[in-house]
Write a structure and sequence with these properties.
6-stranded parallel β-sheet, Rossmann fold, alpha/beta, 13 helices, 357 residues, 3 domains, 4-stranded parallel β-sheet, 434 Repressor (Amino-terminal Domain)
Length: 357
């Protein structure tokens, strides 16, 4: 108990009075911006929660859970996830929370000031779901000392916290193996998302596993990076075309990059899949409406949000239960962009229609 952070520790670290710390935590307009930022950052670093918030957390009476994700509107920030992906995750989270009688406090964290907003949200909720690349690891750890936390799509390995993710590696391995075995394509490359993205890294690893199983030479890194955006996909495709002999097939790390690349190929008069086969990942709704329809991997985006909230509510009820890591399965969706005739099952079609709603 002696190691628990206190208001006195925050005040001493900042060189201010405990009254100043208390006023800063209660009044967003109190004090200078410099003082406010110093107090908020120190409180977050030490994992100190104001007494009123702590009492609410201890009694579990807030009836609110939080969801934090990177601000998708900032340049070079939030490219880890597309707005379409985040929308589906939020819908799933809201569905489970509402059914459980909980409200959801949703916050997009900017690169600047994101830690302070995260701390503010943490002081108002019973627990948090934190999406990958929303906060630095040290800040996630600090918040996890304040409230129960479930990580969503973070890099595997943090065993001290509950974690929900998609089996990205298997999905990428399956789609690459299909290009190799069903179509016999020789020159296949991978276009990844942002550097440091856990999802992109796992999908590239699955791509390499399929190549290894087929006895192919393994690349040291993706052929290009497209930032998980449509614009990034267009740029990556332009670079691949400018590099000389273009690949016969391209495994894109997500659908938006693949769709951007297809627009470049269409403008250049290059046939998909006759000249270059294209695949994506995610199975966003527009993927089946482009020409040709996009072969992809369905990841259960809405189910991710549902599972994360379910795991968080279970953690709130039983704080000392064994930590869990859940990996949700993917599904290969074959359409025409890889050279197949569309073969969606009736079940998959119903799931796609549901995801549109």
């Amino acid at each position: 108990m002696g190691d628990r952070p206190t208001i006195y520790a925050v005040a001493a670290r900042c060189g201010v009075s405990t009254t100043t710390v208390s006023r800063v935590m209660q009044d967003e307009t109190f004090g200078s911006e410099r003082t406010r930022q110093r107090v908020l950052a120190t409180a977050l670093e030490l994992g100190w929660v104001p007494n009123g918030a702590a009492r609410g957390l201890a009694s579990r009476r807030a009836g609110i859970v939080g969801l934090l994700f990177p601000d998708l509107g900032e340049p070079d920030v939030g490219q880890e996830e597309s707005p379409l992906y985040v929308d589906q995750v939020i819908r799933g989270a809201e569905r489970v929370a509402t059914h459980a009688g909980q409200a959801v406090l949703i916050a997009a964290l900017k690169a600047s000031g994101g830690k302070n907003l995260a701390y503010s949200v943490a002081s108002k909720v019973d627990g948090l779901v934190i999406m990958s690349r929303s906060l630095a690891d040290k800040d996630v750890a600090a918040i996890a000392r304040m409230v129960p936390v479930v990580l969503l799509a973070h890099r595997p390995g943090r065993r001290s916290l509950d974690h929900v993710a998609v089996d990205n590696r298997t999905g990428a391995r399956d789609i690459t193996a299909h290009l190799l075995a069903a179509h016999g394509y020789e020159n296949i490359v991978f276009v990844g998302g942002p550097e440091g993205s856990p999802d992109s890294s796992e999908r590239f690893a699955g791509f390499c596993e399929a190549l290894a199983q087929a006895g192919r030479t393994l690349p040291l890194h993706p052929a290009a990076e497209g930032g998980f955006t449509e614009l990034g996909g267009r740029t990556a495709m332009e670079r691949l075309l400018a590099g000389g002999r273009p690949p016969r097939a391209i495994v894109f790390g997500n659908d938006e990059m693949a769709i951007g690349a297809m627009s470049v190929l269409r403008t250049a008069g290059i046939n998909v899949p006759g000249d270059i086969a294209i695949t994506g990942f995610d199975n966003i709704s527009v993927s089946r409406h482009v020409t040709p329809p996009l072969t992809t991997v369905r990841q259960p985006m809405r189910e991710l949000g549902e599972a994360a909230i379910e795991l968080l509510l279970a953690r709130i009820r039983q704080p000392d239960a064994t930590r869990k890591t859940l990996y949700l399965s993917t599904e290969l969706i074959l359409r025409e962009s890889c050279g197949c005739v569309s073969s969606l099952s009736a079940t998959s079609e119903r799931e796609e229609l549901r995801d549109d709603r």
